[in-house]
């Protein structure tokens, strides 16, 4: 263990993160967004999201050592992957800037400043990509380097400028994007999932700055005659992988988080209605038909409809005086007003069920109280029925409050 601490390259090799892991996470984010991107292709925000995720996937596919060697062999140029990967990284950096500018300003912002910022990003980073290929054509890089090209050719004319150009372009984009994201994440009125997604994006871009710092330090050390290649070959790759995972999670969280939260709320509402639903089944003798392929929303709607359909005629048996006494009893037992109303309604419904069993047909003159509030508050009533001991305590205390003859 002490040897690993003294040798940072060996230490970092123990925590190597395969490039295929962030590729899989980024692909999952792209798959989640792809149907919406295709359906709303004219939306510049969605195009920017799709472009960033696609370019990020391409970066990690083409920057793996095996793919680098395969591309070099197919093209017949020893280091053809260098300008190709640098161009993908530069395009991804520009795409991130465009995304934040479009996302933060919104689709309604068509100001000259926004259009000018978009044109500036596209023109500058397009020029950088052209310069990367021009510098590679002018450079002499005959020895194929798969993992340490940045430091191996750090002192080679034109390759030196190419390496410095792509790192500076990437670092500038990450600094600006990270700053914009963090400022946006701390503004008021954001949805919780969007806020946490922005924080993950900000953390991912902050790690990209660490990646650039490690690369630039290793290259600078070569210029000064020192060997810190492990920063470029062993530290930078896992940092880039972790950064990509955080960026992908930042895109996934607002979409998947809201989707899962909505599904959880529907299932919770369906489960909370179960006590009142079971009670209404004892009154009607029927049940909601089970449909295998019914969505959670449809099952919830059917359960709510069934409960209200059975509860509506049952309101003719409700005792309003008992409901009032039950509310006073619940308040006397220390329950807050909202909980007391639910317990009082639950007690009144149980009394109505018992009354109906004793008198199946009420007199024709009995119309019952207004059922509007009860039918709209079936969820709190059902939650109250989950605590039968509390409902029985309220009913017992309400009986004690019956006025004498």
TrEMBL record:
The chain crosses the membrane at residues 15-32, 44-68, 80-101, 122-143, 163-181, 193-211, 239-261. The keyword ATP-binding does not apply. Residues 354-381 are annotated as: Disordered. Keywords: Membrane, Transmembrane, Transmembrane helix. Pfam families: DUF6545. InterPro entries: DUF6545, MAB_1171c-like. Residues 263-380 form the DUF6545 domain. The keyword S-adenosyl-L-methionine does not apply. This is DUF6545 domain-containing protein. It comes from Streptomyces monashensis.
